[in-house]
Each structure stands twice: as C-alpha cells, then as structure tokens.
Amino acid sequence: MTPRSQRADLDLAGRALGGSVRGVSDDLFAPVESLLLPGTPVHDPATFGPRGKIYDGWESRRRRTPGEDWAIVALGIPGELHEVVVDTAFFRGNYPPEITVEAARVEQDVDPVDSSVAWTVVVPRSPCGGNTENVYPVDDPAIYTHVRLVIHPDGGVARMRVRGIAVPDPRLLGGRIDLASLQHGGDIADCSDMFYSDARNALMPGEARTMGEGWENKRRRGGGNDYLVVTFAGPARLAWLDIDTTFFVGNAPGEVVVSARSPDGEWVEVLGRTRTRTDMHNRFRLPDLVADAVRVDVFPDGGMARLHVYGELTSATLSTLLERWHADDSEVW
Q1: 203: helix, coil or strand?
Q2: From CA 45, how far away is CA 35, in angstroms rounded?
Q3: Most buried of 37, 47, 129, 261 (most Cβ within 10 A)?
Q4: H helix runs in the chain, sequence order
Q5: Of 284, 285, 205, 219, which Cα lies nearest the Cα of 252?
C-alpha cells in the first residue's frame, strides 16, 4: 500500500467530497458558500447588485466594532491537514490583511458554532495578500473534522482549500462498502494518463453529472494500454466491481482486465479480458479473496465516470484504523 505520506493531498473541504459551510459571522456582500466552489474564481468589474460590487467569493461588511469575521467549514472527509490556501483573487482593496486558521474534531451531531467546541490554531495569525493565493503550511498530525477561517478584521476571500490526507471515520467502515471511494480511504496510487481529467474523479462520491466529472485519458496512438491502480484503506475481502461508463459514449474502454494485490504484494488476475459497454454500469462479480489494491487495465484506452469496488475491510484492518482514529483524542472519542 502506498504510505499516506507519499500520497498527493486532497482538498478535504471541497464540495465534491461533501465539504460545507456550517456557520459564518457575516456575509452581507458575497455568500460564504462560494469559498468551497470548484474551479478558479471569475470576475466581471461591471457587475453590481443592491448591496454593492458582486464578487465570486465570500465578503463581509466593513467592521465598525471590535472583533473579526469568521467562517466555519465541515470537511467532506476528516483528515490530517497539510496546508490551507486562502485565495483572495480579485479582492484588491477589500481583502483581510491577516488571517488565522483553527481546526477542531467534533461529532456529527455537535453544532461547531457552539462555544463549547475546542479549537486548535493550525495556522497562527499571519499576513494575507490581496488578489493572490496565500498558502499556509500546517504542521499538525492530528485528525480534524472542521476548520474555522478567521479574517482580521473583515474583508473578502474568493476560495479556501484545505489540503491534506483523508482519514475516514473507521466506525462507519464496517460491512460491505465501496472500498475504492475516497470517502472510505481509497485512493489512486498510479495512473498511466490523466490528460483530460484527474483519475481521482473516478473515486469521488455520488454520480457523475457529466463526462468531465470522470477520468479520461488521451487517445492512445502507440502500443500498450492505459490503466489505474487504486489502493484501499487496508486489506479487504472483495465482492464485486462496477465500471461506470455513464456519459462515456464514444470514449469508454473497449475491454478491461482487473487484477488484485494480496497483502503480501502478489498480483492476481480477478477479471480476465472482458468487453465493456458505453454509457452504463458494467458490473462484475469478483473472486472471494483478500486484497489491498486493484489495478484496472483498459484496452487500448478510454475513460470512466466512476469505479466502484465493493467488499468488506477485514477485522484486522478495522482494528488498525480504529487504533489510529482514537489515538489522537481518546478523551473526546
């Protein structure tokens, strides 16, 4: 399995993973939900509304009393934070000169706005520039579920990205689950080509709404074939697999081969070369074996909207994940 420290970071707060705003002090000028929108901010200098200039981001009013403004975001997946990006694109005369980022770990039924929540400073009060991506490293191995962006004293922020490694709540991982899902600890360990879109799109929660929300490689003009390798949260017993080619009408794979990796590192073919069909769910039973990763070879190329690998994490895997989860904050959890 690829060590967590070697995996590329996810935007744990992104809307695609289920991130959401849980509270805000003020967003009179521009809605705080824009903080988590995908894509880069846009700007039209000529657009004005009844409350002033329209910005693609979050903007609070000019503060006339002591204090500062803040926004609380629930991460789509709990995780270990590595950096926070505060993007002030197009905020030139109304950006916050300083920011602080705090994080907390709370149960789902607790309101993070509640004054009893214990917040930990993960980015101390720091300068913030206007019309730029401000990147703040985080050196804290703890697992968090929420972050609070504090802007001193007020102003506008276009986007916030909270990058890190997903650490899903293992109490929700028992029974049959989609082992490949990012929400359940799956991730891309290797991929032959991501010319059109990121292979991680295939592991996102929910259904793809367009072809652009899946994984698509370029047209292969030479020999060989494209592939992706997906690791699980740990060893698991396989059940079945779904190669979802929804919206891939003329660019789905012609055929696929699926291999699984045993915990001792040996690869075994679990689905021989098989034809796949376009714009549909291609479902296949898998042998009853324990594996910690799968490799999907597509022939000769082609993409997919989603890849689902269903099975159950072993009891040993769940015990290991629970130990890591509780080790950070056993008093609360």
Answers
A1: helix
A2: 19
A3: 261
A4: 315-327
A5: 219
Please write the tens of the pLDDT for every residue from 280-313: 999 999 999 999 999 999 999 999 999 999 999 9
Question: What is the structure's pLDDT at 104?
Answer: 97
pLDDT above 90 as % of the chain? 86
SS3 326: helix
Q: Is 4 a residue whose pLDDT tops 70?
A: no
pTM: 0.89
- Residue 188 CA to residue 2 CA, distance in Å, equals 9
Q: Other CB atoms closer than 10 Å to residue 152's CB: what's the count?
A: 18
Residue 68 — φ and ψ, nearest 5°? -150, 165
Question: What is the set of domains in the chain, with CATH numbers?
Answer: 4-166 (2.60.120.260), 171-317 (2.60.120.260)
Give the three-state DSSP class for 134.
Answer: strand
Residue type, 220: R
* Angstrom distance (rounded) from CA 125 to CA 318: 38
Question: What kind and span of H or E run contains 71?
Answer: strand 69-87
The average pLDDT across 116-137 equals 97
Residue 330, judged by CB atoms within 10 A of its CB (0-12, 13-18, 19+), counts as exposed
Residue 285 neighbours by CB under 8 Å, 6+ apart: 239, 240
Q: How far apart are CA 290 and CA 313, in angstroms?
A: 9
Q: How would you write 236-248 as a 3-class SS string?
A: EEEEEEEEECCCC
DSSP per-residue string spanning 47-60: -EETTEE--SSEEP
Mean pLDDT of 89-114: 94
332 pLDDT more than 70: no
- The mean per-residue pLDDT over the stretch 62-91 comes to 96
**Cα separation, 81 vs 136, whole angstroms:** 11
What pLDDT digit, counting tens, does each position of 172-186 carry? 999 999 999 999 999
Q: Name beta bridge partners: 49.
A: 52
- In Å, how far are 102, 244, 276, 285, 298 from 255, measured between CA atoms? 48, 13, 5, 16, 6
Spell out a b/e string for 267-285, using b for 16 or more CB atoms within 10 Å of the CB, else e: eeebbeeeebebeeebeee
